[in-house]
Amino acid sequence: MKKTIAALALSLSCSVFSQTDEAVFKTIYNKALQDHQAYNWLDYLSNNIGGRLSGSLNAQRAVDWGKASLEEIGLDKVWLQPVMVPKWIRGAKEYAYFESSSGQTTEVNICALGGSVATPALGLKAELVEVHNFEELEKLGEANIKGKIVFYNRPMEVELIDTFRAYGNCVNQRYKGAEEAAKYGAVGVIVRSMSLKIDDLPHTGSMSYGDLPVSKRIPSAAISTKQADLLSHVLTLDKTAKFYFRQNCKQLEDVKSYNVIGEITGSEKPNEYLIVGGHLDSWDLGDGAHDDGAGIVQSMEVLRLFKTLNIKPKHSIRVVMFMNEENGLRGATEYAKVAKEKGETHVVSLESDSGGFTPRGFSFDCQDSTLDKVSTWTTLFKPYLIHYFEKGHGGADVGPLKTNANVTVGLRPDSQRYFDHHHAESDTFEAINSRELELGAASMTALIYMFDKYGI
Fold first, then answer.
1. pLDDT 10s digit of each residue in the chain, 456 long?
2. Which of 99, 214, 232, 258 is the 20 to 30 Å CA partner of 160?
3. How far apart are CA 292 and CA 298, in angstroms?
4. Which of 248, 277, 297 finishes a domain?
5. 239 and 108 belong to one structural domain
6. Nearest residue to 261 via CA among 322, 316, 203, 337
7. What is the domain extent for residue 379?
8. Strands across the sheet with 359-365, in order?
């Protein structure tokens, strides 16, 4: 009986590789769209576990869930890779208002930025100074900033079709805003949320104090885009308006967490690896469905589809659920470190960390000759409306694995709505479309199939 089952499995595996690439693509996409497994996984991760701050109880619950789910797929190996990660907690909900010179107050929505220190227990109130960049900050100098709260109000550029470029052009005010403002004696920082949507939801995200000693660190929070516009308007009419905010966040000692890893061992090149992955941690305001629950379940789905369709890969294929991308990249750094110590050869590393919207293609960090080769595959993807094959960023978690000889890849979904949800309370399972999510998983599977069959 066992021999019969083994023979059948071998026959099915061989039949897949004897098919045309077009036929295999059709099989992959059909299976992904009919099963909805990635969507079901994300439902559980989002609604039964929720937001997964690095070092939190929910992050550990996600680790346990990830390991159990990979074991259910029936992979050849599943294991946890220990890594020490930062533990920052938000504490009680933040509160803020601005006060006009007449004494009238208006409440506004804010959220502490990840890594920020708390305000004094009774909160912090001071006059505001609005700036759009660090150059304006420098021109104002200590004489105009000391004792005040700096309000960074540089919006994402709506005219840029590449929304990640728009994000990149303004995110330094969030990440380094407190560090720069503290140099001139500011007592706090309020940052316009990194979002193209004008609404009442503040968006969190990581920030850094650089080399500032603890005694010099000032509290930093994000304000919603709608209320940033209102606050800016008020300041044009009343230069002496004051801002009050209270937050209770705290940075604790590092704690142990884990990357979750699963593998299908290659039949011909078991010591050469193709990996797919995303980050398991998320911010805590929503449930992290787009950032990056979608990438996690899509990556899991790649290996499940290989198993379900009896595609026996030549290379070993791994799924990696990286921990601590949001505020440290510790998981990615540890994975790359261990891989180097073991002498592992990572040929292709594919990351999904741009949301679960409709896939448009991939960006490749690779040699020109490899991109030329990959570009010949576009005719296979075009029936599925995958057109974008360009040089570009692979992804934060696969970045530490990059060498001159290998390839890192990023899945590129449509990004026009991504920053509506990114790091905000609205990043929830309800914002996910099952069909879009599964199409992304199928596209990743198809690309890994091609790299496994034809190499780089």
1. 444 444 444 444 445 557 899 999 999 999 999 998 999 999 999 999 999 999 999 999 999 999 999 999 999 999 999 999 999 999 999 999 999 988 999 999 999 999 999 999 999 999 999 999 999 999 999 999 999 999 999 999 999 999 999 999 999 999 999 999 999 999 999 999 999 999 999 999 999 999 999 999 999 999 999 999 999 999 999 999 999 999 999 999 999 999 999 999 999 999 999 999 999 999 999 999 999 999 999 999 999 999 999 999 999 999 999 999 999 999 999 999 999 999 999 999 999 999 999 999 999 999 999 999 999 999 999 999 999 999 999 999 999 999 999 999 999 999 999 999 999 999 999 999 999 999 999 999 999 999 999 999
2. 232
3. 10
4. 248
5. yes
6. 322
7. 14-88+253-454
8. 77-89, 250-264, 315-322, 269-279, 345-351, 407-413, 359-365, 388-391
- Burial grade of 223 (CB within 10 A; 0-12, 13-18, 19 or more): buried
Closest C-alpha among 327, 303, 321, 335 to residue 401? 335
Residue 352 in contact with residue 300, Cβ under 8 Å?
A: no
Q: Identity (one letter) of the amino acid at 8?
A: L
Q: End-to-end CA distance of the chain, in Å?
A: 39
Q: Say if residues 445 and 32 touch (Cβ distance below 8 Å).
A: yes
CA distance 282 to 290: 9
Residue 293 DSSP class? I
Provide the 3-class DSSP secondary structure of residue 402.
Answer: coil
Read out DSSP for 301-363? HHHHHHHHTT---SEEEEEEEES-TTTT-HHHHHHHHHHHHTT-EEEEEEE--S-SS-EEEEE
